[in-house]
Amino acid sequence: MELKLFFLFSLVFIITVNAQVRMVYDRNDVFDRKLYEEVLDRGECLKQMRYIVTEDPLLWARFLDAGFRMPRSLQKGNLNDLGSYYECLGINENVRDMSIEGKYCTAKIPVNRFFNLTSLPIQSELREVLWPEFNPMMFNIDDSTYNDLIKQMSIKKQLQGLIGTTPEDNNISRDDDSILGYEISIRLAVCLPKPCSLQNVLETVSNISGLQIQEDYCRLPNDKPWAAADYVALVTFTLLGILMLISTTYDIRHRIFLKKDPKLANKLYLSFSVYTNTLRLVTYTPVPGALECLDGIRAIAMLWVIIGHTYQMFVTAPTMHNPLDLLYFLRSFWSLWITAAPITVDTFFMLSGLLLIYTIAGKTTRSTLLKNLHLFYLSRYLRLFPVLAASILLQASLFYRVTDGPVWESVAQQTYQCRKYWWSTLLYIQNYYNPRFTCIPNTWYLAVDFQLFLISPIILVGVIGTTKRTAWITLTTALLASITGSSIFNFIMRFTAANFVVGSTREDRPDYFTLYYVNTLPRASPFFVGMIFGYILYLCRGKEIIMSKIQITFLWFLTIVVSSGIICSHYIVLRPDWDNWIVDALINSYMRPLWALSICWMIFACTHGYGGPINWILSHPMWKILARLSYTMYVFHYPLMFVVNGSLVTPLYFSDEFAIHKAMTDFVIAVLAAYIITLFVDAPCSVLIKHFLGGFIKQAPKKPLDNAADTSEVKNKNESA
């Protein structure tokens, strides 16, 4: 009898927890809302409840086992329990004339709220049985843990603002009940019979006072309706697969069975061949004059980006076993190589500007450039388009369907954003039009880079076909204008210099991510630094540069000091008590061009024989493949991280060792995905674009110093930057 009463009360509690279910997903429409409404049946719900509780305790035990239990490690900041998602949705029993199926839901219970059992119209002896399980103190945490949770939640919301999973950067305060009740709350998983209408069931029981419950979301089997993007993706990738099969068959027949010269094969027929495209990817012929060290710089920068995003995913993860341990790690000096990771994106901006000048200067005239300006833009757009379009289409369709999990809403949010804002990403305006809801969040970099590319002809006109004096005036003017404009903007806006703030912040602080981090003006200076050094490398190409040991030692020492100082500055500005807007403005204005300057010197030294072991490492052939895959890796690694983390069925446990292990796993997944997309999309489209569009820049008469340069090799590097 007591067991049945316990089951009955457990059902009442679960139903009460879900009393405020909102079946409409305000943030996206990627789940089938009609399905949730259609399955509701008050009579069937009461009928199934009566049977489960009174006649089939084993089945009811399955519902309980898949749902409600308290989170472990509450004092370490774990406020979530995910229950057993697949076990709940796997409940499907046909008994008598009923089909009993499970429905997975989560509910949020604010901490420091007391659960008043005395308000329930139940027998006193039952309260004694239930008290050990529903101790009101289990919803309380101490003040120190609470304050740390607020700081950790603040960091999470700031980073979620960057990746587009929260609409606004709310300030969390203990006195703000509305924010407290939603953010600092315990989230529990519950498993319910599918037809139950929670509101109707509540009408049959007394209200439970003193405990505020907010329903989070519910899931049902097959609740992902097909959308237009799914059909487009299915047709598109099926056609690509057929073309790849036909092309590879033609290639193998031509090369192996007929033993004909590969040069005699039709280039268009080979464009989708896995065999030929793989050979192109892994085959490398050394070319005198090529900037070999760029491969190592690009590959290492890409690895740093992936590691930084892996740690960021820990911070923004929907559920973690020990989030406060992560908070303490971010406060420590040893996290500096992670908190400073965003600076590596400026390396890519610098490389883009450097290679733009290096590949064009001396190889065309001003009139040719202006005459073919439309092709100049079109070739760049089409070079980036196939991989970006493939990532958008996959995120809007296959990535959403490839797996599932109790925290799949993070992936659903990304899918919704791609279905709604795909066009702004393809037009490279997402950093201004919808910066908080970007399709493929990391593509803000492509938007800024393409916008800088759009204005680059203004500088190129002053460099190509002019005197050195005019070229230097043009390049330095562009850099000074960029730095001056950025400095004025930073001093007016008074941004923090921290990517996120570990502690209290100024209440009047402007939005760092949308107004600074993804804004083209503050991010432009590394691009112009790269253009200047691209021109220097062009002038020095094929020449022997003589420098004394003192000069070389001093420049390397200065580079190490400047780059180390930039990295270490993140530790200072991330301190909870840091509040110096003048230093923040100086760091925001000059940190990025100085970092680009340091990398540029490294490239110059390695190119002209002053790199020593650094040049040997950066120029090693092991970086070639990674460098060629770097663009595709950059585009795809982030959405794949969302898929992997969204499929979690238990909270993540943070440790530095596990984070490195996970980063390496993310890196391997990114490499494999980049290889597949390169074979399916990037390599074939490159061949087709080159065939139909052709080169728009006519080769100028070669001077002696041009003979050592390999234009195609450098251009390939520029395209993947």
Quick tags:
single chain, 721 residues, mainly alpha, 3 domains, 4-stranded antiparallel beta sheet, 32 helices, 4 strands, 61% helix, globular, disordered N terminus, O2_lipid_transport_reg, transmembrane, membrane
Structure overview:
The protein is mainly α. It folds into three domains: 176 residues, no CATH class; 58 residues, no CATH class; 426 residues, no CATH class. It is 61% helix and 4% strand. The protein contains 32 helices and four strands. Strands 1, 2, 3 and 4 form a four-stranded antiparallel beta sheet that branches. β1 and β2 form a beta hairpin. α16 packs parallel to α22 and α18 packs antiparallel against α20. The protein is globular, with a radius of gyration of 30 Å. The N terminus and C terminus are likely disordered.
Question: What is this structure, in a nutshell?
Answer:
By secondary structure, the protein is mainly α. It is built from 32 helices and four strands. It folds into three domains: 2-141 and 184-219, no CATH class; 226-283, no CATH class; 294-719, no CATH class.
Summarize the helices and strands and which ones pair or pack.
Layout: H1 2-17, H2 33-38, H3 42-55, H4 57-66, H5 85-89, E1 92-95, E2 98-110, H6 124-130, H7 143-163, H8 177-183, E3 185-193, H9 198-202, E4 214-219, H10 228-257, H11 267-270, H12 274-282, H13 293-316, H14 323-331, H15 336-339, H16 345-360, H17 366-371, H18 373-395, H19 398-401, H20 409-426, H21 430-433, H22 444-463, H23 468-493, H24 512-517, H25 520-523, H26 525-540, H27 549-573, H28 581-607, H29 613-618, H30 624-646, H31 656-693, H32 711-719
